[in-house]
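Notes, Module 5: Reading structure tokens.

Key idea: the token line is not a picture. It is a compressed description, and you learn to read it the same way you learned to read a sequence, by spotting repeated patterns. We will look at two proteins. The first is printed below with its tokens.
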Amino acid sequence: MNERNILVVAHAGREDTVAAARRVIELLRGAGARPVLAEDDRRDLASVDRYFSGVDALGPEVGQSDLELAIVLGGDGTILRAAELVRGSAAPVLGINMGHVGFLAEIDRDNMEAAVHRVIDRDYEVEERLALSVRVKDVDGAVVYETWALNEATVEKASRERMIEIVLEIDGRPLSSFGCDGMVVSTPTGSTAYNFSAGGPVIWPSVEAIAVVPLSAHALFAKPLVVSPDASVAIEMLEGTSGAGILWCDGRRSHELPPGARVVVRRSSRPVRLARLHPTAFTNRLVRKFQLPVAGWRGQGGAA
């Protein structure tokens, strides 16, 4: 029987997270599974508790493709990091919320032990989320940088003093050119993140679409757009008139954009896989996250 490799993603910055990581690892070992830590996490956690020095590391001892699942102890930011760690595998990510309410974590810490037992029993479903493929091309059309994003890809000005001049292109056709502070290209998963702060629409995860939102654009036509999930969105940095820009993906990976650079964003052929223990209505997540007032609702939860 093949060994079951379960990645545990946690950081040493909080005492309760360190204790939770140790308990999850003990439960996995007790059930005959092999817990794995990212090398950075193992180093940081072992500096707090030497117990973690005896846990195998991702890379040296266990290959990415050998992972069965990742258990994440933290909020949406930690889950984004976990998605990056398992990107080359088919392993889904299960989030256990250790802090503020987020949109990606599946359960709260109070249900942590039950969640681990369900992982051991393979008692979960996998939900696939649309991700973005991102390419940067130079003035000659050569690809100089390539990455991906689960939440969003943003093109932003590199200097506070100077806006960038861009041309927005959808499906190979120019839509408009204008000066702006940047552009956000978001997935439904990321619609409640930077996209939301920039005035973009909230998109239910079950809806496949891509949102395109200008940041402080100097133009009459600069409203948020919702395009097909199979659309190609390109942002060209105008030569001669534009300041330098920078590309950010999920706030984690960046690349400098000189004038003339072209950023092409489209649907990735590889979605991000999230493990789900029980269905939770996205509406409920919105209400809880933003503490929306629902007093006075007289519905019964069924069809109107």
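Here is the second protein, with the sequence above and the tokens below, as before.
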Amino acid sequence: MKLAVLDWYTVSVSGDITTEALEQFGDVKVISLTKPEETAANIGDADIVLCNKVLITKEVMDACPNLRYVGLFATGYNNVDVAYAAKKGITVCNAGQYSTNAVAQQVFAYILDRYSRIRDYDNAVKNGEWERSPAFSYFPIPTAELAGQTLAIVGYGSIGRRVAEIGSAFGMNIVVSTRTKPTNCPYEVTDVLTAAKKADVITFHCPLTEQTRGLVNSELLGVMKPTAVLINTSRGPVVNEADLAEALNSGRIAAAYADVLEKEPMSPDTPLKHAKNLTITPHTAWAAFETRKRLVDIVCGNIRAWLDGSPTNKVN
């Protein structure tokens, strides 16, 4: 059995995770990153291809007659022509729910950053402001408790549910907006505009679909409180970047945090680059060491199940 890993760099930038676990399945060819024009050649005569964002198109599959299995180091699978893969008898499996804890943790890192203002006070201290304070305690930058604040969660999958649990533990009021009403949900469920109106913090955990593309736009931003904070760790195109930049620069909303952008790596032309009160992280919410190790374990489990004739996490 031959395996080709097409973009291992996206899983292990610093080499902290090895491909040793994959070697149980056969000969492994590891490519750090693959350009579109290199995909078919890099797969070669492999039976199994593993990738994160590399496009596996009809043309690629036709050029690789030995290919029988595509495994994704990701939950999303829009980079694979899954319908054509099914026609050719190629199994495609994704890796779901590996990043729930890490993404939820980062959401609250953002929320606590905004509400406790640790970075701002650290900068103030280092600039000598506490030394010049007339009193023992120096607090010109407003902070606030999370208890009693309304946290609106758009998307109620595994990550949305975990965010709700943590928010509830902080004493926040939870409002959920989701495509289908969940069963046994202990929180208020409403439409997205009503959730946005109520939110002190609104966080997005929905998949990218035609219905959610551009969901964060001038209409939604226009109903939010001017003190509200917006967080996006879902997919970049869920946000209309020009509309969000305008809302931040005009003070329509107070602040935003984004871990994903419409183009990744970030385009120097994005209107969000210099937007006021915006913190951008480079798609890191999923990237904790334990999370990536879990991801590799899930991918290996998927291959094992496929070889045993009972594929798990099959998307086609």
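Summary for the second protein:
- The longest strand covers residues 150-154.
- The CA atoms of residues 122 and 130 lie 10 Å apart.
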